[in-house]
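To close the chapter, one final illustration. This time we ask the reader to focus less on the individual chains and more on the assembly as a whole: which components sit near each other, and how the overall shape emerges from the parts.
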Amino acid sequence: MSDAIRVRDLRKTYPAKPPVEAVRGIDLRVDRGECFGLLGPNGAGKTTTIEILEGLLDATSGEVEILGMRWDRDGDAIRQRIGISLQETRLSEKLTLRETLCLFRSFYRQGRDPDAVIAELSLEDKARSRVGKLSGGQKQRLAVACALVGDPELLFLDEPTTGLDPRSRRELWGVIQQFRDSRRTVLLTTHYLDEAERLCDRVAIVDRGRVIACDTPRALIASLGGEHVVEFQWCEQVGSAAAGSGALRPPLAALLALPAVTGARDDGERIALSVSEPHVAIPALLERLPTLGFQLAGLTTRHASLEDVFIKVAGHALSDAEPPRRE
Amino acid sequence: MSSAFAQLTLSRIREFVREPEALFWVYGFPLLMATALGIAFRNQPIEQIHVDLVVAPTDAPSPGPTAASTTAPTEAQAAAPKKAPADASADASADASATTPTEAATVAPIKALTEAATVAPTKALTEAATVAPTKAPIEAPTAGNVDSMAAKAVASLAGPLAKLSRESRFVVTRGTEQTARQRLRGGKTDVVVIARDESAGGGAADEAWVVYLYDFTRKESVLARNAVEDALQRAAGRRDAFTAEDRKFDEPGGRYIDFLVPGLLGMSLMGGGLWGVGYVIVDMRIRKLLKRFLATPMPRSHFLAAVLVSRLLFLLPEVLVLLAFSRLAFGVTSQGGLVGVLIFILLGAIAFAGIGLLVASRARTLESVSGLMNLVMLPMWVLSGIFFSSDRFPEAVQPLIKLLPLTMAIDGLRGVMIDGVAAWSQPRELLGLAVWSVISFALALRLFRWN
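The assembled structure is written out below.
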């Protein structure tokens, strides 16, 4: 059986002065039955990529295969078998939720009973409400319901939980997990790390039009060399013997030399160390700092996250990218 | 599960019906318009001619006829007009001004005339917008002074002017030349009659007694001028060379309302097609709904067909309401039957839906599509003969005007409704609209942008 999605050297350049290279050579392979996440800051090229995969945009170059088919030859066959939720679609406010779902159902040769989908998304109470009267979370669930009503094998979700409250997000995650658990494929984009970590079997980190890392969340975190992060703040030790060294910040090289420390990053206010065994690294750090002329001002430990991976591979924090684009 | 086409059409109808404002604009507006026009036409069974009368002040060069019969009425006149123009028009002030001529007239040496003149002002009070002084002399002969005016040429304009004021089809307003000019500029009056005062004798007989001030290019003004001239000349004693009879023509099909209804139908076809298709599609594009649909296997032809068919469905009541209203209120009927009317309405609706689609094929904002729609509609509003015949435009542009889809639709409808010509006997209009439909749809589909 073919892969759900296969992408080779995908490029998309928007004509402008100067031309905007939104996607600059992306390779992807998504297996059937997995939930795959494109993680990256706003403006990284996630939406452009997913819209090319959905057949809504033409690629400038590169190859795309969806369920073993190609858009230029089998467009309609692909559309029959995929479900899509766009980032911003304003469905007709005057139609009821159920009417909207029936409308979308009519586009597919085969599909599910709209009422069953409504029940699955716990929208029974709102089935007869007009779309204009739904809350943001309900609208978003309806958007996903419109994607599910054609009984797709492959689901594309572009930023499905952006702007939702925590409860609505968790509800939607449940729906997505349920879909994946029925051995079908999901490709979603997100700029939420917790969402990618929680939902996705594999994650591709996208930055500036390129995939800069791609693996399971666990493997990506493991690639940091340690699953733990030790962060500390410092102050200069008054009257220390080593104070003459003149350094204002603890040198990263000295920290990297500590046992069980696999990485070090200066975040400005604090220093973050990637650590494989905190019980080894922390005593060593406490011992070493005074000899460097510094006093510990604060220390926390936590599990490493995709944010740490992102910062490591992208060289900047996820939130440092351009502000979100909105029309 | 029903087909995509059925569901899309149903959705369009639901959206439309659940939008009260849209319902009003589509169905209420044509009715309001028809009602307004109905009132405008009903209240004026006989056309009123608005005339402003300016009696020149005494110090103006007097062209009064040298052969003035008596000096007495002239004196009375001389005293009166000085005051008259100032406070003429209002009913209440007619009372005040009326007393002056009475006094003036009583000074007059000839008794008969004096009596006649004192009768006049009371009469003037009963007649709106009529002022006493000019009346006094004309009452004189009828009031018993038998031999004076009837036989001879009229001695002064006063009589004819008073008669003009009494004729119901003339609405005479007195005032100064300045205010009269102002009213003429504002279209409040059709013609200004400047009557030379005839007090102090002298002045040549061939000098004009009356000056008509009006816009030579304005039809109503020309009509008014001729009517006033005719009335004054007759009142002054002109005899007709032969007798003529006026016969009213109001057969169905010959009235303005019969001309107007097909025009309104065409206008509503155009507006409905462009707004109902163009605006709706651009709105869906902005909401990214078109893009969302594009991502489904929805057959695109079904979508466009649904937009078109729902448009035609909305049109049906719109057209029927207008036709029924104009029939009930004005007795407008179609001489050529309803089938021909429906054929042209259907063809027109399709052509304008195609043009609406074309206009919407690329526009990304409501502002740009509104601008484009106005660009398309404005020339047709002006040129295609909704309210007046397009034949009024120069011969050179007629071929172009005839090519406009609205001209074709309206001409076709008028052919059926007024002249009773069958639709298929108007191949030019029929084929023309079909060609517009095909070209606009073909072009729109080629240019259409879903994203």
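The radius of gyration of chain B is 32 Å. The beta strands of chain B are 49-55, 170-174, 191-195, 210-213. With these observations in hand, you are ready for the problems at the end of the chapter.
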